[in-house]
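ok posting inputs for the arginine job
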Amino acid sequence: MRADGDVPTADDDPTAAGDESAAGSDGSGVVRRDRFSGGPARNFLSSLAADERIFAADLAVDRAHVVMLAEQGIVDEAVAGEILAAIDDVEDAGHGALPDGEDVHEAIETAVVDRVGPDGGKMHTARSRNDEVAACIRYRLRADLLDAVEGTVALREALVETAEDHVDTVMPGYTHLQPAQPTTVAHFLLSYESAVARDTARLLDASDRTNRSPLGAAAFAGTPFDIDRERTAELLGFDGIVENSMDAAAGRDFLAESTAALATHATTLSGLAEDIVVFANRGFVDLADEYASTSSIMPQKVNPDTLELVRAVAGDAVGGLTGLLTTLKGLPRAYNRDLQRATPHAWETVDAVTEATDVAAGAVATAEWPEETLEAAAGEGFSTATGVADALAMAGVPFRTAHEVLAAASEEADDGTPDIDTLDAVTVDVIGESLFEYVSRERVEAALDPVESVASRDSVGGPAPEAVAAQLEAAAAGIETDAAALDERRDALAAAATTLESEVAAYV
Ligand code: ARG
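and the output
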């Protein structure tokens, strides 16, 4: 980078900034020396620094491509061996040792040609950076998505394990942030487990669609060489190929889909974080010290900062998705350099969201839910009113009329919570009959008790302990299935990496 603030001109020597080590012998990349010697926009154009993320991916893609070229007799085996040995050497030297270049693809090729001589340039037979970069992004992103999946599975485990301890812990449930109906901590936590389970599914789906090989599309228009696209796909652990070569080079909907799945998950996380922040404020949950933060001035404070940051990551993710989609929108076929600036949105999003997921899982796993405080609050705000209305409706009173009785009784009471006698008096006013003509006093008392209220709501998916037991079982089974799906995918990638390694070893 220029430090002098001068506006660069076309006459500027692109290597004058002391960047010799990062340049080929003539100060530019060896590759296409005559075509690209830099210029004022050299740094602007280059993605080399950002490409560190796909350095290992590019080495794998290069290896698979060269092995395939040798197998197809397009490059002879001796040359393939020299190129593959040079790639090993480039790997050992690391990304930081790469020569200057427009991007990692060009820089690696330059480094190989530096070692092998002109024959090194045969590695770029029958391909283009367009299919190459698409392959690299897919190769790296699929692994990052699996890491994100792992995070969601761990969060679900934390939610389920905590829920198991709190099937009977009643708490207030809210709508509009107002006490609405009593529920349980388990029911509340499982509501997020269900949402995160869908996030896992979306991420797995996105990773499966990402895991297709665009390699062999070349610039977009295919190649006259007798390449074997299925073979490179197999060597790289892809589940198959992106067939249409123009789609393969141009398509970035896998980035959009993946980033959207991450942003959706971040939005789920932000709701969970917000609930925990609000509950912590009310003394309904105690965060472990390691997930709380103190004030630099107010000694008494313990703040839920980590959860506030988790909540904020949704902003980053939505920003990443918006940046990505806005960059992709309206791009014509087949390759445009705009795509270079699309990719980092996905990296930033996957990193931020995966980290937030891990933090949320830790916070959930270590938090305490004070049962007495929660139970005391569970009936606040006449939150059992619906249960009394339900009891009246079960006795044959139209629900709308029952609703009217309870609304009038609530209005009648100073604090909004009528006693049983007030309930009865209002029933007489509204229906012309005593409440106890319909429901026994014990039944009304039970309906007004938060624990009984919860126990009565045993419809499928409801908060009653036996309904929650079924949800816990289903959640545990879902976690097991998804953990197995994750292992299966990672095992397949590891097996492909081992195969590629031994194929390469046969030449080197
Ligand atoms: N760095 C580029 C990217 O990320 C690689 C592809 C360059 N291809 C090209 N035709 N200029 O998209």
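notes: The chain is about 60% helix and 5% strand. The first helix runs from residue 42 to 45.
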